[in-house]
Amino acid sequence: MQYTASILILFMLTHAASMVAACDQRKNTESENKHAISEGERHNKLHVGRFSGEFVASVLPENWEKMTFRGLKPTHYELAEVEDRVVIRAESISSSSGLIRRTEIDLSEYPVIEWSWKVENILEKGDVYSKDGDDYPARIYVIFDYDLKNLGWINRNIIRLLRRFYGEVPARAINYIYANHAETGTVVQNPYTDLVMMVVVDSGEEHIGKWRTHQRNIYDDYIEIYGEAPPPVGGLAIMTDSDDTGESAVAYFGNICFLRE
Prior knowledge:
6-stranded antiparallel sheet, Jelly Rolls, 25% helix, alpha+beta, 13 strands, 7-stranded mixed sheet, 2 domains
């Protein structure tokens, strides 16, 4: 009887060990599959703003920092849970500032940017053609690593002077904006400087309160605008501003990534 019991216990232990080994093998296989998917996704998609993976309690999303302008009241940015996902909520009350991620991106490898945003209102006095109306409830600010040596003497020194007084001033940038009345697809020089070009991707009241997802080929846009191949991206910013119009705006920004074409 004792011998039989010992055999039974040995069998149970052996069977249990086999089950644990099989379970571990399945877990390893699942982990390898997930890792392979993750590697494949990483190969084709470069995340620069994965806000959905952040904690609402965090002050700022990882690797992002405030981009402020001297003399201007800053816009308020915070991580918030909206419709069961974490996003950036921006509220501007006669203010102007952004959040910036400083990172170098080779547009020959990742030429396409993808993002989503939602606005609660447009700015009634907004106008892409005037300084008094140069405000937008939402914009994606693509900053290029452009060498000042390529600019004329006057522009080089203007930028140096502006940086001394206002802080972050790009040598070249493209803004993708949410306008109020300008026609979608409009490409226009910023009223303050010809070094920043703006592309209208959303406009008007039709999409207020709705999530909008966009893809833009920055490489192609840069060539279309500047007539030459682009330098690397040196930084990316999100921005909600209303300092020129004196109005208020609330916007939400979802994940931002760069894609292979």
